[in-house]
Amino acid sequence: MASAAVDLLIGKIISVIENEASFIGGLSEELSEIKHELVSMRSFLKDAYEKRGLTEGEQAWVANVRDIAYTVEDIIDEFMYHMIRKQQGGKFTRLLHQTFHFPKYLWVKHQMAGKLRKINQAIKSTSERRQRYGVDGLEGKSSCDDHKWVRNHGESSLFIRDDDLVGIEDDRQLLVEWLMGGDAQRTVVSVVGMGGSGKTTLAAKVYNSQIVKRNFDCSAWITISQTYAIEDLFKGMIKEFYVAAKEVVPMDLSSMSYRQLLELLVKYLRPKRYVIVLDDVWNINLWREINVSLPDENNGSRIMLTTRKEDIASFSFGVGSYVHRIQPLGKSEAWTLFCMKAFPSNPNKNCPQNIESLARALVDKCEGLPLAIVALGGLMSTKKLEADWRKAYNSLNWELSNNPMLEVVKSILFLSVNDLPYRLMCCFLYCCLFPEDYLIRRKRLIKLWIAEGFVEHVRGITLEEVAESYLMELICRSMLQVVMRNPLGRPKACKMHDLMRELALSTSKVEKFCAIYDGGEESVARHLSIQTSDRALKSWKGMSQLRSLLVFAVDKIFPTLETLPSGFRMLRVLDLEKILVMKLPNELVDLFNLRYLNLKSTKVKELPKSIGRLHNLQTLDIRDSDIKVLPAGIAKMQNLRHLLMTRYNHGHYTDFEYVYGSPSPSNICKLKNLQVLDCVEAEADFLRRLRSMTQLTRFGITKVREAYEKDLCISIQNMNLLHHLFVMVSDEEAYLRMDALSSAPPCIKTLVLAGKLEKVPHWFSSLQSLTYLYLHWSRLTEDLVPNIQALPNLGDLTLINAYTGNQLCFRTGFQKLRRLHLSNFPELNEIIIERGVMPGLQKLYLGRCMELKMLPCGIEYLKDVEELDLAIVSNELIERIRGEGSMDRPKVQHVPKISHYFQSPYGILYESLSWRKKLATQSMKK
Length: 926
What we know:
Elements: H1 4-19, H2 21-24, H3 28-49, H4 56-87, H5 91-100, H6 102-129, H7 169-180, E1 187-192, H8 199-208, H9 210-213, E2 218-223, H10 230-244, H11 258-269, E3 274-281, H12 285-290, E4 302-307, H13 310-313, E5 320-325, H14 331-342, H15 356-364, H16 370-380, H17 386-395, H18 399-402, H19 405-418, H20 422-430, E6 440-441, H21 442-452, H22 463-476, E7 481-485, E8 491-495, H23 498-511, E9 514-517, E10 527-530, E11 548-551, E12 573-575, E13 596-598, E14 619-621, E15 642-644, E16 647-648, E17 659-660, E18 676-681, H24 684-689, E19 698-704, H25 709-717, E20 724-729, E21 750-754, E22 772-776, H26 785-788, E23 796-800, E24 807-810, E25 819-823, E26 830-833, E27 843-847, E28 867-871, H27 875-879, E29 897-904, E30 907-912, H28 915-925
Parallel strand pairs: 1-4, 1-5, 2-3, 3-4, 9-10, 10-11, 11-12, 12-13, 13-14, 14-15, 15-18, 18-19, 19-20, 20-21, 21-22, 22-23, 23-25, 24-26, 25-27, 27-28, 28-29
Antiparallel strand pairs: 6-8, 7-8, 16-17, 29-30
């Protein structure tokens, strides 16, 4: 495992030496010799990577190779930095440079050549000591032995998907009874067990069950870290309660004092029956601090906590309490869970007979721990040959049966990690840069991996597609857990289980690969994540080696980056998303190596005029920043792949102008590697040149005028790779004319049209790959439904002020629709849904349809609906479902959650109309 990052680094160095000969030709002799040595080293490292663990001597040798490789990369990058500075600028600038700085260039070249000669000598000395990279055959120690005990702070429920849960039904029923039954006194339910035993998974299953949700007015899930600030916990609880209830979170939350937060929380909870989960409690002091914020009004409120410590679970909380101790899975349950993960594609998930004895032996070594079983099952799901299973079994040494159970988990997790291909290893380790319990967006992670050079080029498919395959494999191996999916099940966001994150952090520290700075001890690493507002950044040691800087000091004052430390000039990644930075330093344009620049949701107002000097930049994300205009130099960045510029009108999503684009230089069309251009303002010159951008996969454009129709449609017609299209007209009275488009691009999956439509585009019926359709202020006079009902993959349909008629009739089709959002229909007074239409619908939203006096006819057929949201609708509609005896109540009695949002002098308020929930609450009070 330890050699993976070094192996990849050597591969990158060799690639640079081969592909950048024009830049480093002045050092060709020295680099050629180093290249041959590195090739030999790489061969040894690949052999060593296949081993269970390296001997101490081999580990020292790999560390030596790593330091050499890092040094070579630093020398090459520094030399290229000077070479690129020499070549940048106009003819006059280059002439001045040649006249006055040529001696300095010669000096730099001489200095670099001297460093490379020393490296060559070091390589030869290392090679001789290691007998030309041979393996000495000693058994050595497992890499597991030197690791500390892995700590679990996270939401383990996300480690095992709901449909894979085994052996917890009895425990779940017991906890549900404790939460819903008993007297009206506030009660604490404790779930105690060791790390990886499934306590958080069980708690999450109970917390997320509809029967529990219906029984409480509000709910919150709070994960407790070992070091916490009570003010941050209060803020987290307030946000959880407000978001879960779909209420507007107080804007000034971040600036509130302890007393203000406490008063707000108590006032909010006092009239409500609440349930809150405190996940992973490490210290009983937490209860003493948080107890005051949780009022006891004798209305049946509940607190459930999970902990590893028996003394916390058994603590006398001064209120009613229950304790549930997690037991290991039985052999039958463990085997069932393992087979679910190891043989997902087999009939009935059965284990092949020829490997059953080996498989059962492996499961036995997990000792009933769900975390270990899931991880091992994910690993073995990729093994097809009996020899592979035997090799995996033999690599689990006797310590798995004799060490404490958490050591068993560590050993199995190490085995899972050891089995990763070296490119996946680097991608996995890189994820530990994100904070604990951080929701990692799929697209963001993919762009970062590409920028770091972790993703290999595969002929015939894009880097993004290769990176997504990496992500899917990590998910399948249970190395990452899916947190959010789109309506058709595709992952949108994931997270690292904390045990996995601890494992990755400990490995990264040894490898000097990744480091986390949270105000404590500093470490030398290539990739740095800052998770504090500490101002000691400029004094960070090892700046010259730094290739990535990700900052996560969200909601804290982070110092304005007026200057960059000199060591930053080799950065490949600079990620400042949501950081309160207002101005970028002038030195930013000197970061010739920069591949990824994320300024999303920052306060930055402008980009440097000479940003075109960042010729290696692949991703520029300025979404929801204060940057409104792009400098002309953007067109010089020939390696740019993703340009994201959308700015949302937050809080006004139903208004016509809910999103804004940015004007862009017309010569941006020269960027032949650009795949994502979202979102740009339309201009005549730009649209004429747009025809050449056939490589785009995502395109968004605003302020489109009728005169642009032909040019725009011709351009879109040629974008055969396009899968996401957003088009918005110049103002709410302008017509969006796209009749010149004979057919839509064949791969399009997401279509967003904002503006008046005279008629339904004739090519709508050809959108065979479409999964998401959003029509905004289309104000069609003809019925849209017959034109889209047969689309085979449509999973999400959002219509906002899209139709002026008085009836919508869904007679057939919509077989994969999961979400239906209808809002701002001024004349709509009837919705009809025939039996068998949209059978899998899970969420229905009806908003601002004031003429609609009753629920959709046929809603009783939609048995899978989990949420019904009614926002700013007529009182007649609400009264028909309010209360047990109301007229239409039987039609929606199967819907677990019914929410009503209404206008009041205090803003938009919320009430629950969930009948089952109210009935349960009343019975509890009785």
